[in-house]
Amino acid sequence: MSYEVELKFPVPDLSAFSKKLTDQAVSISLPHEEIDLYLAHPARDFSQTDEALRLRRKGDANFITYKGPKIDAATKTRREIELPLALGPESLASWTALLEAIGFRPVAEVKKSRRKAAVPWQGRRVEACLDEVAGVGTFVEFELIADESQIDAARKCIQSLAQSFGLIQSERRSYLELLLKGK
Amino acid sequence: MSYEVELKFPVPDLSAFSKKLTDQAVSISLPHEEIDLYLAHPARDFSQTDEALRLRRKGDANFITYKGPKIDAATKTRREIELPLALGPESLASWTALLEAIGFRPVAEVKKSRRKAAVPWQGRRVEACLDEVAGVGTFVEFELIADESQIDAARKCIQSLAQSFGLIQSERRSYLELLLKGK
């Protein structure tokens, strides 16, 4: 079973953060847009169970993602199952229709512009996402995918990386929670 | 919205039926195996709501299918949404895991050997499936996919085709229902 081990920080000045990365010879991708449609479960209150189900559009590519409850108090470590769907807007519309037919309901759409970088740290490559989230703010996320036995090591690795950038106060709430709170 | 207009008949002697088709110069495909995993909804009793959600494996190909309630008393006409999933057994295992994570539960597996034929009738090509269903029996299904405005015409077309083969007493229950009833 794969877990997503993640820390997220509000970073008001993304260009200053970018410069720190490029100063370390880390290259940053061009921005791409991700549009996430979050769905409510027909019988569970995901905001109570701390789960999420979403459809993500990234250019022509589509994905479905399930996120399980966070398993610790410090990071955003959680089970994640992400699966590719057929390409294109028609596929996404059909998936929305199928999920609605079985009782799922669209809750909100989170749009962000994301740049990615692979940051070498303690012998690993930590994925960093530089996010401008519409209606929410600017953030940096650090992420490793880990097996159950590797979760602790992965957590320590990304905590130490974040500290090296002076990032201390992490944000455990999801972009969806932050968006809904702001409304 | 697409509807599946379908009639199914128990046909004890499939080879005699096959011969009737080939006598009319209709070619029949080689058999392939379809393995359908039916899933129970976390909050709805699909046997009461007359819906179904299944994962289908057909060689290396995988599909998810939602079937809505039957909309008339005579045929098996119902809304159907079928979407392709990524290929291979690992993809199917991940899909099963995702659906289980959001509360769906495997109910039963229906295995069948299916041959297909496209039967010209009244200017349409009706899909005929010659099915040997493990633990259930042998059947012929006639099917057309129709828009809402075309449902009546499609129904009449396949009823007339079935009559031309002397098939009168249709079976409206699904293979899943027949399998569970026989257990």
Describe this structure in words.
- The structure is a homodimer of 183-residue chains.
- Chain A is α+β, with helices and mostly antiparallel strands and 183 residues long.
- Chain A has five helices and eight strands.
- Chain A has helices at 14-23, 46-49, 89-101, 151-164, 175-182; strands at residues 2-10, 32-40, 52-58, 61-70, 78-85, 105-121, 124-133, 137-147.
- An eight-stranded antiparallel beta barrel of chain A has the order 1-5-4-3-2-6-7-8, surrounded by four helices.
- In chain A, strand 3 (52-58) and strand 4 form a beta hairpin.
- The first copy, chain A, is globular, with a radius of gyration of 17 Å.
- The A-B interface holds A 41-44, 51, 53, 64, 66, 68, 79, 81, 83-86, 91, 94-95, 97-98, 101-103 and B 41-44, 51, 53, 64, 66, 68, 79, 81, 83-86, 91, 94-95, 97-98, 101-103.
- Element-level helix/strand string of chain A: EHEHEEEHEEEHH
Counting DSSP H or I runs of 4 or more residues, the number of helices of chain A is 5
Strand order of the largest sheet of chain A: 1-5-4-3-2-6-7-8
State the total count of DSSP E strands of chain A.
8
- Percent helix of chain A: 25-40%
Structural class of chain A: alpha+beta
